[in-house]
Amino acid sequence: MIRIAHHKMFAHPLPEGHRFPMLKYELIPEQLLYEGSIEQEQLFEPGLLEEEIIVMTHEKAYWEKLRDLTLSDREQRRIGFPLSPELVEREVRIASGTIEAAISALRHKIAFNVAGGTHHAGRFWGEGFCLLNDQAIAANYLLNKCLCDRILIIDLDVHQGNGTAEIFGKVPQVFTFSMHGDKNFPFRKEQSDLDVPLENGMGDEAYLQLLEQHLKKAFLIQQPDFVFYLSGVDVLATDKLGKLALSKAGCKERDRIVLQYCKDLGVPLQISMGGGYSADIKDIVDAHCNTFRLAADLFG
């Protein structure tokens, strides 16, 4: 059974101007349930994490400033949100959901977090609406618990996973692979193990060719026994921030390539949904739902 972490009332801790794109986290499971792609029993609400798990990844001083709401004004501006207890709890639950999904994937080959993909958070900073790095926290959890040995993080959000790259820059057990807009946020990039910068306006054919080429390279180099996949849909041509030109069909084919690769090699896979900022929320929700539909078709 494919398990899916979801989060009720997800947008409510956010400032008014940021709630619209976050509505997708409530609408995605509703749509999947409505159309019969998933059953209610597949959904679970994550709990909170112990602090010792968070500080396996983030510096203790940074976490304590988050927890105690004492980040400086400058640090909060870098994040993009004013801090609140609800916002911090939200991020902790996101990370918890990704850990629980990763554990489920070890048993069932694939699992999802409807949220997550908070890849701009580094060891000692938050950035770009990301406070804690969910997939990095989950990867370190699996390594610490000796549940896997070699991890590949595939980041296909349109923005570079700079926080993830910084966290694992000197950790050979984790290979970071990011395909992202070269002239898009963050404008100061970190160095992933494999970076593929993309020109503005790139469409389906060129994008998918690059993905096939570099995904094969990443798997050959790392030989992973676990994969984290960040499947942001801000690569769509309709996205207000993405600057790429993928069609919805191209985005679905991107997901199929990644999922098929993991299935063929028998590598467990956890998926966090990442960004999506199209003007019509239906485009965002449908593109994300395509990822779940593919998983149901491929993994049953």
TrEMBL record:
Specify the superkingdom: Bacteria
Keyword Hydrolase set for record: yes
Q: Does this UniProt record's set of keywords contain Disulfide bond? A: no
InterPro entries this protein is in? HDAC_classIV, HDACs, His_deacetylse_dom, His_deacetylse_dom_sf, Ureohydrolase_dom_sf
Q: Which GO terms describe its molecular function?
A: histone deacetylase activity; hydrolase activity
Key words, A-Z: Hydrolase
Would you kindly state one Gene Ontology biological process term found in this protein's UniProt entry? epigenetic regulation of gene expression
Note the Pfam families from the entry: Hist_deacetyl
Q: Where is the Histone deacetylase domain?
A: 21-289
Q: What family is this? A: Belongs to the histone deacetylase family.
Q: What is this protein called?
A: Acetoin utilization deacetylase AcuC-like enzyme
